[in-house]
Each structure stands twice: as structure tokens, then as C-alpha cells.
Specification:
- By secondary structure, this protein is α+β, with helices and mostly antiparallel strands.
- Helices cover 31% and strands 31% of the residues.
- It is elongated.
């Protein structure tokens, strides 16, 4: 018993250790969860944390952020709901707000950028003050370490947008300039007077407190900066914008970002010039002297030739600065600066234009130029809608390709462009926009890798030289057609040769079969005639003589018993039946040679001559285009039909028998149908039992290389379907109509 007790205690100890190992301790510090690798977080480790809410998504079921005093973390409500972990009917109570203390039990998840918690149960425990926001700089932001943490940033507001939101949600997005980068601030709950104040913040320097949320891509890599601000109270205006944006410092277009020991300001700058190209509601190009700049503007319609002042923010995210968030003021009109005639090589290599510094011309970006090239391809879109667009692919000097875009065309312009032919040498006037590749680390300057030409209208495209009628493309097409025709002719000749070979072989086989059939037919005919003569002159006469003698004997024997007389009469009837069968056999043997050449007519002739068959009981029908059958085929078919009809009348007690012939291109079909008592084909005995009828039919069809199918059942009559292939089975394939 003592040993049994020790065994039970050991088993209980093992069971407790297994249970303890299967349930790891919950993670209670947010800092420890954030330190997990993606692979560890994906295991769904248990978490039990307590913290204060630092941000709440206004959308129902949206995420929240909590902070336990050491670190903050995302609580992914929508993911938990999708995975059926969060089972509350209400996705999130309305009384959860910034400052609410929550205890959250759930599991870890790698999230889209940093580890998050998927909640299984949430308990509200009161309210508390928010943790302090840590001031951070641009370098710290781009490290991504402050994800889900409360931070404080300062910058210049460059854009204010309030896109449509679901009912009850009020969200405004502020774009802040931070050094040479931007950060998007999402401010919740702005409306009414706060919204009006927010719209006036453009060009103001502000300080904001909120939760930092990097913008990740599909691979979890940070691609942008974003901060979630819970309300207007977390936005502090450090210096308001000027009442008049055009009171901002004025700059020349070629000095948008000049060197200054104090650094470049992120506030608005004012510049002026003439509009050289415009896409209303999107952007336009401004040129002053020989320098141009691209201006992004969505709120004002500007036309080519307008003299304007622009107050906007200089962006340096491209290799060449451009202007965004612009406010425009029209000051008059002015002629567009003359186009600079350049080559593609000069556009892409501006430092090669002249060996003397004083004669060098600056880059062509955002400047009106005139360039020549060969039209390689043109794509015209929406030409039927009255407002068309076009894109041309041009090959310039050095075989360098570039794109010319015409974003707006009227009907006349679209018609004029349609007249352009590929291969034409053309001259284009438009605004050049340089394109650059990735920023290399090892060099201080960057050469453009290509450019796009923005063309105002079809009138800015001139044809210098039309393409030759005979082009390389047409030559290639002609050669392709010739080769295709040659290939087709070769294939056709080979196919024809194979077809001729097949027909020759088939003809040889048909002739051989025809010759063999004729020899077989002649031999069979000779034998049939001899047999018919012997049967007629010998056996038939003997049967007739025996019949007469029996009839004479009965005349002399008047007083014989009635039973004996009946036996004599039965014997005489049997003898006469034998004579009838013999006559049928002689009919089949002779009618093959003596009857008509048309098989249907031969059948009708033979049926009419069968005097012991009921008149009108047998009907022959024919369809299709008849053709001549060999005597051998007709003889075998005639005997087969005779056997089948005789069986239907004698054994099947049929009142009507239909013989249906159907001629088609593949062969002859013969169908024999009766309304007799029917029989079971499987129960009919074979040759060994003395039954030769069905076996004889099948043997005849096999000799003709045909098929036979017998269908019958008790009380349903019988049907025999025969099919004889045409090829090789006709004495002459010529139609009866052609011989008539």
C-alpha cells in the first residue's frame, strides 16, 4: 500500500507540472510586450495589463491606446472582434475615454508595425491623469521607437483638411512642416468654432501633444510620420500666421531655398511670375525670367498667361524644390516667356551646353522649351467626350525617349492630333518637368534620368517631316505576310499530299475489296443457280410426287380408322409446308439475280411474289438518296430480310411487318419491325440446339462487316436493326439518279 501511495503522489506531481508548463505566466508590463519579437508576439502569449487610455478612435469598434506609466501600447479591438476573441455585444462602451483606467486581459499579436494586444476581457477601474508627453525631434521620430507613446512636437502648419467622416465623427488633419520633412496630425473632435480656428492655422507655428503612430507599409516598414491628437486642447499656437499671407518674405524663383546661417524657414514664402501651363484644380507652372517652379494648387483656377503672386510652402522632397499649400493672387496678364530651343541631350546634361561659365543656361525644370523628335506612339483618350487627353512617346536625339502629355484637348485639337502619323519628325513646345532616380549617397549632385513635357494644345505641335510611305514596320509586316503565306502554302501542300495518299490507299483497298467481292459473288451466284436447279428438278419434284401418292392412297383407303386418316393428313400438311419453305429458299436464290437492281424495289418484288404471306402485311419504306449495292450485299440482305419477316409472320404471329431502309453518306440502315407476340433473345437456342435463324443472320452481317441489334420482349413485338457501311460494300458508288 505504501508503494501505491508513492506512485499516486508521483502521478499527481507530474500532472501539476504539466499543467503549470502548459499555462505560462501572463505578461503584466507593457514594456515587456513591446520588447517581444514578431515571432514571439505571434504565439499569442497571455497578457494582463493595467493602464490609462491615452487615445480613443472615435469609430465604433476602433482601437484604443493605453499607457501603464512606463510605456504605451495599442489595443486592437477590431482585430479581436474579427478573431472572435472580444465577445462583448457592444464593441466598446461609450464611457471609455481619454483618462479612463482599464485592466485588459488578452493575447499578444505582432501588429502591423509593433506588438499589440488582442483583448479578451476589459474591466474599467476608474480615471487617472495622462502620462507626460515627451518632446521629441525629427531624428527620434524617424527611429520609430515612440510608437504608441505620448509625445510633443512643434512645427509649422502647412495644410488643414477635414475630409468627410461617418456620422458623429469629427476629424481634422493638419500637415506640419518639421525641418525638411512633414508629419500629419490627426486631431479628433474639432467642430464649430474650433474648426474655424483650425482653418486659420495655416502658416502658424504650433506645439501638439498626442500619441505617435508611424505609417507602415505592407511589410511593417515605417514610411511616414503621424500623430493622433485627442482634441483641440492638445494644440498650442506658439506664433499665429500673418493676417495677410502675401506679407511673407518675397523670394526669387531661383532662390527658393537659399543658404542662411540661421537655416531655412518653414513658413510661407511669396514669389511671382507668369503661368506657363495649368491643370485646374491640381497644379500649374510659374516662370520668371529663365527659372520656373511647379505650384500645387487645388482651390483656384489659373490660366496660361496670368501674372500671379503665390504665397506657399517650399517643399524639398524632390531634387528640385516645388511649392505646395499655395494661396494665389492674380495681378494681371503677361506674355508667356519665349520657349528655349534645346535638345534632349542638353535637357539631361545641362552642364555640357557651353565651355564658358557665362554662357551656361540653368536647368530646364518647370521652364518652357522647344524640342524635336520622332513620334513613336500616340495614345488618345476620351476623344468622343469633348474633353480628350493625349500622351505621345517621342524619341529625341541619342535615341532617348520622353513623354509629352496634353491633359486637355477640345474636339478640333483631338482631330488635329489624329492626323499625326507615327514616324513623323515633330517639334513640341511645352513645359519641361525633370525626373530623377533614387538619391545616391556617394555624389553631391544629381543628373536627371528623364523628363516629361507638358503641352498646352495641339497647336504647340508642328510636323517638320512626314514619315516615308515605305517604313521598316510596313516592310516587316509585308515580310511577315509573305512568310505566313509561304508557310500556309507549305502546310496546305503537305496536307494535300497526305490527303491524296489516303485517298489512293482507300481507292486501292476499295478496288481490291470490289474485285474480291465480285469473284465471291460470281462463285456464289454459280453455286446458287446450280443449287436452285437441283432443288427444283430433284427435291421439289420428289416432294410433289410424294404428296400426290399420299393423296391417292387416302382415296383407296376409305375404311381406315379416323386416327390413321388424321395422321396421313398431318403428314401431307407437313410435306406441303416443307415444299413452301423450299420455294421460299428458291425465291431468295433466284431473285437476287433476276430481280431489279434497286434494293428497295427488289424487296417489294420479292414480297409480292411470296403468295403464302398475307397480302399487305409487309410494307417496305425507303428514305435518303439510294445508291447501288453489289449483288452479293443485296443477296445476303434479301435472305436476311426473308428470314426475319418469315419468323415474324410464322412464329411471332405478327399482323404487320415494316421494313425501313435509310440511306446516308456513311452506309445503309435496315430496320425490321413487327407487332407480334415477341420473344426473349437471350432464351433463343443456338446452332447446337438446332436453331439456325438468328445465328444465320449474324453470320451474314459479319460477312458484310456490318452491325446487327435484336430487341424484343414478350407482348412487345420484335425489332431488328442492321447497319452496313458504305465504303467497300457497293458495287458502284454512283447514285441511282445519275444512272437513270
Amino acid at each position: 500500500m505504501k508503494k501505491l501511495g508513492w506512485i499516486i503522489l508521483a502521478w499527481i506531481g507530474c500532472w501539476l507540472s504539466v499543467c503549470t508548463a502548459a499555462e505560462p505566466a501572463s505578461l503584466t508590463r507593457i514594456r515587456d510586450i513591446r520588447a517581444l519579437s514578431p515571432a514571439e508576439a505571434e504565439k499569442g502569449l497571455p497578457a494582463d495589463v493595467r493602464g490609462v487610455v491615452t487615445w480613443v478612435d472615435p469609430a465604433k469598434g476602433g482601437p484604443i491606446v493605453i499607457d501603464d506609466g512606463e510605456a504605451g501600447i495599442w489595443i486592437a479591438m477590431e482585430v479581436a472582434i474579427a478573431n472572435k476573441l472580444w465577445k462583448r455585444q457592444d464593441p466598446r462602451p461609450d464611457d471609455w475615454k481619454v483618462g479612463t483606467i482599464l485592466r485588459i486581459k488578452g493575447v499578444t499579436d505582432p501588429g502591423g508595425y509593433a506588438p499589440v494586444i488582442l483583448p479578451e476581457s476589459i474591466t474599467q477601474e476608474g480615471e487617472a491623469a495622462l502620462p507626460p508627453a515627451n518632446p521629441v525631434g525629427l531624428e527620434r521620430l524617424y527611429s520609430g521607437a515612440d510608437d504608441a507613446q505620448r509625445i510633443e512636437i512643434r512645427g509649422v502648419v502647412q495644410r488643414v483638411e477635414s475630409p468627410p467622416q461617418p456620422a458623429g465623427n469629427k476629424v481634422t488633419f493638419l500637415t506640419l512642416g518639421l525641418g525638411d520633412q512633414v508629419c500629419v496630425a490627426r486631431v479628433d473632435g474639432i467642430g464649430g468654432s474650433d474648426q474655424t480656428a483650425a482653418n486659420r492655422l495655416v502658416d502658424a507655428e504650433v506645439r501638439m501633444k498626442g500619441v505617435f503612430t508611424p505609417v507602415p507599409n505592407l511589410r511593417g516598414e515605417m514610411t511616414g510620420l503621424r500623430i493622433h491628437v485627442s482634441g483641440w486642447n492638445d494644440v498650442e499656437v506658439l506664433s499665429p500666421p500673418p493676417e495677410d499671407p502675401f506679407l511673407s518674405p518675397k523670394v526669387e524663383l531661383d532662390r527658393l531655398v537659399p543658404f542662411s546661417p540661421m537655416g531655412s524657414s518653414r513658413h510661407r514664402k511669396v514669389m511671382q511670375g507668369v503661368v506657363t501651363f495649368s491643370v485646374p484644380g491640381s497644379f500649374f507652372f510659374l516662370q520668371d525670367g529663365v527659372t520656373g517652379v511647379k505650384v500645387e494648387a487645388k482651390d483656384m483656377v489659373i490660366h496660361v498667361g496670368d501674372q500671379v503672386e503665390v504665397a506657399g510652402f517650399v517643399e524639398t522632397s524632390r531634387w528640385i524644390a516645388f511649392v505646395s499649400g499655395a494661396v494665389i493672387r492674380k495681378t494681371g496678364t503677361a506674355p508667356v516667356p519665349p520657349a528655349l530651343s534645346v535638345t534632349v541631350k542638353q535637357i539631361l546634361h545641362p552642364d555640357l551646353w557651353s565651355s564658358r561659365r557665362t554662357e551656361k543656361i540653368g536647368d530646364c525644370d518647370s521652364r518652357t522649351v522647344r524640342v524635336k523628335g520622332l513620334l513613336k506612339r500616340m495614345e488618345l483618350r476620351d476623344a468622343e467626350k469633348g474633353s480628350a487627353t493625349a500622351s505621345l512617346q517621342i524619341e529625341g536625339d541619342g535615341h532617348q525617349l520622353f513623354i509629352a502629355d496634353l491633359p486637355r484637348l477640345d474636339g478640333a485639337g483631338a482631330l488635329e492630333l489624329r492626323s499625326l502619323k507615327e514616324g513623323s519628325e515633330i517639334s513640341l513646345t511645352g513645359v519641361c518637368e525633370l525626373m530623377f532616380g533614387d538619391r545616391p549617397v556617394a555624389i553631391q549632385t544629381m543628373r536627371p534620368v528623364g523628363f516629361r513635357l507638358w503641352v498646352n494644345s495641339a497647336a504647340d505641335i508642328k510636323v517638320l517631316k512626314s514619315p516615308s510611305w515605305w517604313t521598316l514596320r510596313k516592310l516587316a509586316v509585308a515580310l511577315g505576310i509573305a512568310l505566313a503565306a509561304l508557310l500556309g502554302a507549305t502546310i496546305w501542300i503537305r496536307t494535300l499530299q497526305r490527303a491524296v495518299r489516303r485517298h489512293v490507299l482507300a481507292l486501292e483497298e476499295s478496288m481490291r475489296h470490289h474485285r474480291d467481292s465480285e469473284l465471291e459473288f460470281l462463285s456464289a451466284r454459280k453455286e446458287r443457280l446450280r443449287l436452285a436447279t437441283d432443288l427444283h428438278d430433284g427435291l421439289q419434284q420428289m416432294i410433289i410426287g410424294v404428296g400426290f401418292r399420299m393423296e391417292a392412297a387416302l382415296a383407296y383407303l376409305d375404311d381406315i380408322p379416323a386416327a390413321a386418316r388424321e395422321e396421313f393428313l398431318a403428314a401431307r400438311r407437313t410435306l406441303m409446308g416443307t415444299l413452301t419453305g423450299l420455294r421460299e429458299c428458291l425465291w431468295g436464290l433466284r431473285h437476287v439475280d433476276e430481280g431489279p437492281g434497286d434494293f428497295a424495289a427488289l424487296l417489294r418484288h420479292g414480297i409480292d411474289s411470296m403468295e403464302h404471306w398475307p397480302r399487305g402485311a409487309v410494307v417496305v419504306e425507303s428514305s435518303g438518296q439510294p445508291y447501288i449495292l453489289s449483288r452479293d450485299v443485296m443477296g445476303n440482305l434479301l435472305l436476311l430480310v426473308q428470314e426475319a419477316v418469315g419468323n415474324a409472320l410464322n412464329h411471332g404471329k405478327a399482323a404487320h411487318v415494316r421494313v425501313i431502309l435509310n440511306y446516308d453518306a456513311e452506309g445503309l440502315e435496315v430496320s425490321i419491325q413487327d407487332d407480334g407476340v415477341g420473344f426473349d433473345p437471350a432464351a433463343v437456342g443456338g446452332i447446337s440446339e438446332g436453331h439456325f435463324g438468328l445465328a444465320g443472320m449474324k453470320e451474314r452481317i459479319n460477312r458484310l462487316r456490318g452491325d446487327i441489334r435484336i430487341q424484343s420482349s414478350a407482348g412487345q413485338g420484335a425489332r431488328i436493326d442492321i447497319r452496313i457501311p458504305r465504303s467497300g460494300d457497293t458495287g458502284d458508288d454512283t447514285l441511282l439518279e445519275e444512272q437513270a
